[in-house]
Specification:
7 helices; single chain; mainly alpha
């Protein structure tokens, strides 16, 4: 038991951040599996989906940093900036990349239907569509991460 406690308290900010990611991925896998009607374990490591694991990770990091280092610390400021950039990127560039991939995949399908011999290099081409997040998915990740960050018992509280 002491060994596990030492591992979990070695770097609590890192532990809480990883736990935020893990919980978000478990929720995402559960939701995807329910919607698909079958277990989709690949969602445990996949990008995109509800909730955003990236947002959960950085928000857990922010809350943990605030609790451990204080909200007036330089580390808290850095964590906040990283979280803002990560969540903005997930909703912006990465989300648009996924939308563009959907359009390109449809174009590729239409070209292949018209004549595979004209476009042999496209036959195995399929772009990943789930790379970003909607604002709702990012906010859900924020809530998951913040909850993990606030609810995780710090070593100073464990005695």
């Amino acid at each position: 038991m002491e060994f596990i406690r030492n591992i979990l308290t070695w770097n609590e900010i890192l532990t809480i951040s990883i736990l935020g990611w893990l919980i978000a991925q478990l929720i995402k896998t559960t939701i995807s599996s329910i919607l698909a009607g079958k277990l989709q374990l690949e969602r445990m490591v996949g990008d995109g989906g509800m909730p955003s694991a990236h947002s959960a990770t950085v928000c857990a990091m922010v809350v943990a940093t605030g609790r451990i280092e204080g909200v007036h610390s330089s580390l808290f400021a850095i964590a906040c900036v990283i979280a803002i950039i990560t969540m903005h990127d997930a909703m912006g560039v990465r989300h648009e990349t996924g939308e563009q991939a959907k359009v390109l995949n449809n174009i590729i399908e239409m070209w292949l239907e018209e004549g595979e011999s004209h476009s042999p290099f496209l036959q195995n081409m399929h772009l990943k569509e789930m790379v970003g997040h909607t604002p709702l998915q990012v906010y859900a990740g924020l809530i998951v991460g913040a909850a993990v960050g606030f609810l995780y018992p710090l070593s100073s509280m464990m005695g």
